[in-house]
UniProtKB/TrEMBL annotation:
Record protein name field: ABC-2 type transport system permease protein
Keywords (A to Z) from UniProt: Membrane, Transmembrane, Transmembrane helix
Chain ranges passing through the membrane: 18-35, 108-130, 151-179, 208-229, 236-258, 285-307
Keyword DNA damage set for record: no
Organism: Paenibacillus eucommiae
Taxonomic lineage from the root: Bacteria, Bacillati, Bacillota, Bacilli, Bacillales
Domain of life the protein comes from: Bacteria
Amino acid sequence: MLSLVQNENMKIYRRMRTWILLVLLIVFCCLVSFIDHYDKSNSQGGDWRASLQQSIQDNQAQLASPDLPEFIKEQMEDSIKISQHSLDNNIPPVQNTMWGGVMTLSGLVQIITLFTVIIAGDMVASEFTWGTIKLLLIRPASRTKILFSKYVSTLLFSLLLLLVLFLSAILVNGILYGFQDVGLPYLSVGANGVVQESSMPLHVFGTYALKLVELVMVVTLAFMISTVFRSSSLAIGFSIFIMLAGQLVTLFLMRYSWGKYYLFANTDLTQYLEGGRPLIEGMTMGFSIAVLAVYFVLFNVLSWIIFKKRDVAA
């Protein structure tokens, strides 16, 4: 099994396309960090205390509006408490530190997903496109082991991209903002309404870990699609279309209660961080995990069944 995984990794990393994707990811990371840092420097002028005081005044003025939804009021009240706690304890807001930049770059997980989908959509379909599937099947390894090795290699590649993003985000934003705030606490409002301090590195790591769940689900879907099509270009194109259209469909299904069973309504688990409001009423962290688990098993079972029964006589 280990030799099969090594063989699949060799197929991935010996292609120029793979290294181009890695370089593009680092370039995107640098560009987004520089632009974000430039915008913050121009808008805040470097005086974070004055900026927080102005933010408190603006939120208090908006709270006076009778038409403001209740959940928006709660978010503003929490924001006021956190801002006041920062002023009282001389804690700069996370946006003005390296951790703010690292959190901003967590949005680039969508780029990682796109890059990994390109690899995942090609893993099985390309073997049929080039006719190399016959060379794999004449080996003593079973079809199950061959498919599993391809899936593991794809997941390892996605994990590598996420690790590159995380380390690049820390390095680039550490250079831009400085590493002096590495021990900055993460501020949140507890159930009792009191501001709590926790570990910022753990919070950032947890956010990226939840993003990994979304990445694994989309990659698993793309891998299943790769087992369906014989054409690698068709498999990649269809996988990218589903990934991009999935979020648009989610916005449409938000109005229906049964929309909470849709895959892409549950992939972003960060919506539950710090008591966040879910996309659809009735959704919870446990519910989304259960739905994702069902989809995960379904996609892998379908991949296995299709690959086991695929006719390679051509």
